[in-house]
Each structure stands twice: as C-alpha cells, then as structure tokens.
Specification:
It contains 11 helices and 26 strands. The chain is α+β, with helices and mostly antiparallel strands. Strands 1-22-19-24-17-16-15 form a 7-stranded antiparallel β-sheet, with no helix packed on it. Strands 2-3-4-11-6-9-14 form a 7-stranded antiparallel β-sheet, with no helix packed on it. The chain binds 2-acetamido-2-deoxy-beta-D-glucopyranose (3 copies).
C-alpha cells in the first residue's frame, strides 16, 4: 500500500515538474558566462527564450570552446546546442570525433578543416561566411590558417545521435596527457601489437602532448614528435601500403576480411589518400552565406535561408541555416515557423526579440546584442526588430532542412491578407471593407520599415487599450 502511494506521489511530482523543466531549462553548476552584453541577468522569467548560460568546455592557451545548451521537450525534438569556438593564430584543434553532427559557420578568419569522408582524408580551406558540415562520428581537425588572425566559429551541435544528455562527448584521436587520446585506454599489449612498435615508442608518442585540445602549431621540423605528426606519418605509410596493395592487384574484399579489426579502426581515422584542394568533386564542398543573392530583399533589409536544396549535406542533419540583415529600426514581420524550431545568434548590432505564447500573451521581449543567442519553439509567433541606432544582423539554425515556409501574421504577404475575405471580416466582427482597409495598410512584406518614434507607446500593450476604446 505504502509503496503504491509513493508511486502515485512520484508520478504527480514528475507531471508537475516537467513544465518547470521546460521553462527553467537547465541550471549549470559549472562556470557560467553571459554572452555579449545582453543586459544583467535578473529577471529570468522575461527571457525564457534566451540561451543564456554558456559552459566553457575547452580552454587552453590556444583557444576556447563554449557551448550554449538548447532545450529538450515535447515537440522540440532533441536539443540543439550552439557552440562558439575561438582559436588563436597558428593553432590546431586536435583531431577528434564527437557524438554530434556539427554545422560550422566561419564567423571571422580562415581555417583548414581536415576530416575523414568515405575513408579518405579531405582537407578543405574555409573563409568567413562559409558553412560546412561534419557528421557525427567522423574524425576531424581544424587549423587556424589566417595569418595573425583569430578564428571565430559558430556551430550547431546536433545531439540527435549523441550518447547522453550532456553537451557532447569528444573522443580525441591525437593527444597525450592532455587531452587523452582514446587509444591510451587500451592495454599496452594491445597497443604494441596494434601499432607494432615498442612500449618506449608508444610511451613517447602517447605521452607528450600537454597543451589541451587547442594547441599552437610548431613551425620547426625538429619539434614534431607529437601524436599528430606521428599519425600523419602513419597515414602516409598507410597510403603507400594502399598504393602498393592496389598495384599488387589483390582482391580487396578478401584482404579486408583478413585485416585485423584494429587496422580498420585506424583506417577510419587515418584515411588513405589526400584529396586536398580538389575542386569539390567527390566530397562535400562548403557553402558561403555571403556569396548568395538574398531570397528576399527590400529597402529595409534582406534575408536568406539555406536548406538541403542549396547545400546537400544539410539533408543528413535536418538543419537549415538562415541569415537576416535589418536596417536601423526595421522589423522582421511577426511570423511563425510551422515546421521548425529556430535558433538565432546575433552577429552585430542591437535588436529586440519578441515572442508570444499561443494564448496571445507576451512571452518575451528582450533586447539582444552581439553574441547573444535565442531560440523560438515551433508554432510560437515572434518578430525581430532592429534598434534605431544601426543595422541588426543575425543568423542561425532551423531544425528542418526542408524549405521552411514561415507564416507571416502581418504585412502584404501575411495570412491575414491572403485570407482577406468575408470569413476573416466575420472572424474579427467587422465589415469586409474595414477589414480590407486594415490589412492593406501595410504595403511592405516580410521586412517592414520603422514606424515613427512614439515614446508614449513604449511598453504599452493592446489589452488595456481595448478597454478604454470600448
Ligand atoms: C613489425 O615490425 C617489424 C620490424 O620493424 C617488421 O619486420 C614486421 O613485418 C612488422 N609486422 C607487421 C605485422 O607489420
Ligand atoms: C547589413 O546591412 C548594413 C546596412 O544596413 C550594411 O552596412 C552591412 O554591410 C550589411 N551586412 C552584410 C553582411 O551584408
Ligand atoms: C498564457 O500561457 C502562458 C504559458 O502557458 C501562461 O504563463 C500565461 O499566464 C497565459 N496567459 C493567459 C492570459 O492566459
């Protein structure tokens, strides 16, 4: 009996705590950090769609990685996190694979990314504005190749394939005492057999690196006995072996069966061939956000969205990318994403994000600054407004790589306008003529011009006004 009551109590407790989890999100015990200027913390209630508390997951002399955790909940799907990677000039992000797919956006700088695609090492140089996808489980490394330039990357971390709830799990391939490569976990005998080298050699190779996940590249040939270069040498050897092997004309399939699983394991890290600087045929190319002409453009700003039709690798991720640039005071008309949850990061300028609850009450009205991140659950109406002081640029990810068709709730292309007929007039209980006049007053669509400044309306809400009119 007692346990049954406890059981019921537990269920009740769970039912009531779920919405709390949804609204309050996670609480970080670890070091917290405010992104950008986003105003003092304080009223949490008013910022429920801000992703505010980033967690530093990597910090070395060479750079840092911060993760803003997304939310988990019904209808939202698996959470997407947003990562901010900063690398000093001439640094390497040590080869690793992680349990999440990444879509990288090069915010500033130039980089070279090397990763294993279909068993081959692909190296690709990326510049500011480029978008590139790294699938979960693929080994990759990143090098800052911008001369004397810091490298800033913003990425989506898609956790749909991840091992746990926590940010993401990195498995280092290179490393030493810090970071510890996954290989270091095997028995010594396994390693000596697998690599066919002495224990001394292993201890040297797997014990040197102490610099952490982001390390400075050393220019001199003399000091290149770290795991990284050793792996490169191994790769070279593999490549030669492969060539030999193909020249020998042996049956590949048969060999693959005989091959010790360890070698396959290594192959998946090391690749057989260097396809650097090929013309993009045969492996996924990057996509530059700024090279494309806008999907929408008027005097008040422009926007574009990239989906799987523009950049094929997005199909695997189920994630789209968008970019918006509003002129001072302009507004992205109130709209809804019927099929996607949207994550946004402010690139420059100051703006306001307004989100409303499905019941027509204000959920959030927050000023945002460079580096701030926000999220808008699917179905929730929202708009973004540039401050009058200058342009407002933001970009982000949507959880649907299919063409996302936002439904606009105001402006010339809005549903209110499209459905403009006796039914709509009846719905608002006004004459058709009056309704038409109302919905046709705004001639612009999607990105709307600033309204004359009206200080007396600041913070004013509709409902109290209705009472005075009535
Ligand atoms: C291991 O190394 C030795 C000496 O370097 C070499 O003779 C031998 O063939 C190697 N074995 C394998 C399986 O590669
Ligand atoms: C965004 O728009 C502003 C002007 O409104 C312009 O100065 C700026 O260069 C634009 N940004 C990009 C990346 O085009
Ligand atoms: C609307 O919904 C939100 C969230 O569910 C709730 O906090 C708020 O009180 C509701 N407002 C009204 C007027 O019902």
């Amino acid at each position: 009996m007692g346990s049954s009551i406890m059981h019921k109590f537990l269920i009740l407790f769970l039912i009531f705590s779920i919405p709390m989890i949804l609204v309050n999100g996670y609480e970080e015990e670890e070091e917290e950090h405010h992104h950008g200027g986003g105003g003092g913390g304080g009223e949490r209630r008013g910022k429920i769609f801000m992703l505010e508390h980033s967690k530093q997951v990597v910090k070395t002399e060479g750079g840092e990685v911060r993760i803003l955790k997304g939310y988990r909940g019904r209808g939202i799907g698996t959470p997407m996190h947003i990562g901010f990677i900063l690398m000093e000039p001439n640094t390497l992000y040590i080869p690793q694979y992680i349990d999440s797919s990444l879509i990288l956006f090069v915010r500033r700088g130039e980089m070279r990314i090397g990763w294993i695609y279909e068993d081959k090492l692909v190296e690709k140089d990326l510049k500011t504005g480029d978008i590139y996808r790294i699938p979960a489980g693929s080994a990759f490394y990143m090098v800052n190749i911008g001369k004397g330039q810091r490298l800033q990357i913003i990425c989506s971390v898609d956790t749909s394939e991840s091992l746990g709830d926590d940010t993401f799990q990195a498995f280092y391939i290179g490393g030493g005492t810090y970071p510890t490569p996954v290989l270091a976990g095997f028995e010594m005998r396994t390693l000596t057999t697998a690599f066919n080298v002495s224990t001394d050699e292993l201890a040297t190779i797997l014990g040197r690196q102490k610099g952490g996940p982001i390390v400075f590249m050393r220019g001199s040939e003399s000091d290149q006995k770290n795991v990284w270069t050793s792996l490169m040498k191994l790769k070279q050897k593999e490549r030669e072996e492969q060539r030999q092997f193909e020249e020998d004309g042996e049956d590949r399939e048969q060999e693959e069966v005989k091959e010790w699983t360890w070698r396959k394991f290594l192959r998946s890290f090391i690749g057989k061939e260097n396809k650097r600087r090929e013309s993009g045929v045969g492996y996924p190319d990057s996509y530059n956000l700024y090279d494309r002409s806008p999907d929408f453009k008027n005097n008040y700003g422009w926007s574009l969205a990239i989906d799987e039709n523009d950049y094929k690798p997005l199909r695997h991720s189920g994630i789209g990318v968008y970019y918006v640039n509003l002129t001072a005071g302009s507004m992205m008309a109130p709209h809804v994403n019927p099929t996607a949850t949207e994550y946004g990061v402010v690139l420059s300028g100051v703006g306001t994000i307004q989100v409303v609850f499905p019941n027509g009450s204000l959920a959030m009205n927050t000023e945002v600054h460079e580096g701030d991140a926000f999220w808008i659950p699917r179905y929730f109406p929202f708009c973004q407004i540039a401050s009058r002081s200058g342009a407002f640029e933001f970009f982000g990810f949507t959880t649907s790589s299919r063409t996302n068709r936002p439904q606009f709730l105001a402006g010339a292309s809005s549903v209110l306008r499209t459905m403009s007929g006796p039914e709509m007039a009846a719905a608002f209980d006004v004459s058709l003529e009056r309704y038409r006049k109302f919905v046709e007053a705004q001639r612009e669509s999607i990105i709307l011009p600033a309204w004359p400044e009206t200080p007396d309306l600041k913070g004013e809400r509709l409902r109290p006004l209705i009472k005075t009119v009535a």
